[in-house]
Write a structure and sequence with these properties.
Layout: H1 26-38, E1 53-57, H2 63-70, E2 75-80, H3 83-96, E3 102-106, E4 119-124, H4 133-142, E5 146-157, E6 168-176, E7 179-186
Parallel strand pairs: 1-2, 1-4, 2-3, 4-5
Antiparallel strand pairs: 5-7, 6-7
Length: 191
């Protein structure tokens, strides 16, 4: 696996063998980030990625968050329950020299702790066939991780259509082989 574009373009990302951690493929990452950079979903019609505080939930290898850093994201928090995944994510951050722009947090996206501040771009790639996409997105929003107006990108198995909370506006959906990617905007206004 490689970083697709940006300042780390072409750099390798370590990924484990086996099926315990399923990183988002280079092709899907390229498509997702092209959409994020060229749609007018950001402030003033700018890229959603540039300067963003990014949450990479169910981060695994960190491929999505590392791609965001490479393409101009300001800071990424990588969250996963797996110590193996987080160790691999740290290793990838170290090899790219990006530790100062990142936090690595062992945590559960279904029962998240409250963050210091909300994030403008949320990337979620939960395990397929587990039904975690919609509940995790709602739990993260309710805990304060997702800013009002934030763009959320959720990868699921191609044959699934999660029922996201009505406060998430559906912007786009794309299918890439075995993966389906949902682009949403958080329309929930915090009281």
């Amino acid at each position: 696996m490689r970083i697709v574009a940006g300042r780390h373009r072409g750099r390798l990302i370590d990924a484990p063998e086996g099926n315990d951690i399923r990183p988002t493929s280079d092709r899907v990452r390229e498509s997702v980030f092209n959409i994020l950079e060229h749609r007018d979903w950001g402030p003033g019609g700018l890229s959603v990625v540039t300067g963003a505080r990014v949450l990479d939930g169910f981060c695994g290898t960190g491929a999505l968050g590392l791609e965001a850093l490479s393409r101009g994201g300001a800071h990424v928090t990588f969250m996963d329950k797996s110590r193996v995944a987080l160790a691999l994510c740290r290793q990838n951050l170290d090899s790219l020299g990006e530790r100062s722009a990142a936090d690595v947090l062992q945590g559960d996206c279904l029962k998240p702790v409250c963050p210091a501040e909300a994030y403008g771009l949320v990337l979620l790639d939960p395990p397929y066939k587990a039904g975690l996409a919609a509940p995790a997105l709602t739990a993260l929003r309710d805990a304060g991780w997702i800013a009002p107006g934030a763009i959320c990108v959720v990868e699921t198995e191609a044959g699934t259509d999660p029922e996201f909370d009505d406060t998430f506006e559906k912007l786009d959906t794309r299918k890439y082989g075995a993966a389906k990617v949902h682009f949403l905007r958080n329309e929930h206004i915090t009281p």
